[in-house]
Amino acid sequence: MSIKLFKNITYYFLCIIAVVICRVTTAKVEVKRANPVVEDQITKIHRLFISHSQLFQQIQKKINSNQYDLEKLTEQKY
Predict the structure, then answer these.
(1) DSSP letters of 17-71?
(2) What 3-state class would DSSP assign to 54?
(3) Which of 9, 59, 74, 75 registers the highest number of CB atoms within 10 A of its CB?
(4) Rounded average pLDDT per 10-residue block, the chain, 78 residues
(5) Alpha carbon distance 31, 17 (integer Å)
(6) Whole domain around residue 16: which residue ranges?
(7) CA quadruple 20, 21, 22, 28: dihedral positive or negative?
(8) pTM above 0.90, yes or no
(9) According to the model, what pLDDT value does residue 52 have?
(10) CB hemisphere CA count around 52 (13 angstroms)
(11) Residue-wise over 2-33: b if at least 16 C-beta within 10 A, else e?
């Protein structure tokens, strides 16, 4: 039960990160015409979110793998 809860929380957290990335990308396009210094800062933030998103995808794959292993062990036990 706790693994499933953790998996759901991780999924929702990844969705929030995706929304933030979309917002930052939109802001980047809008600010691009206004100020090059701000554009550089937004680009750095955007790269940071992308790297974190990739990290969370790796964590999600690991969670799914561990869930599968746990289910196999449970089946073998019974």
Answers:
(1) HHHHHHHHHHHHHHHHTT-HHHHHHHHHHHHHHHHHHHHHHHHHHHHHHHHHHHH
(2) helix
(3) 59
(4) 73 79 67 66 80 81 76 68
(5) 21
(6) 2-77
(7) positive
(8) no
(9) 79
(10) 15
(11) eeeeeeeeeeeebeebeeebeebeeebeeeee
Query: What Cα–Cα distance (Å) separates residue 52 from each residue in 13, 14, 15, 21, 70?
Result: 11, 10, 12, 10, 27
Cβ atoms of 6 and 70 within 8 Å: the answer is no
User: In this structure, what token pair is assigned to residue 14?
Assistant: 């990844």
Q: Give the number of domains in the chain.
A: 1
Residues in the chain: 78
Q: Are 67 and 7 in contact (CB under 8 A)?
A: yes
Between CA 55 and CA 57 the distance in angstroms is: 5
The pair of three-digit structure tokens given for residue 3, joined into one six-digit string: 């693994």
Q: How far apart are CA 74 and CA 8, in angstroms?
A: 21
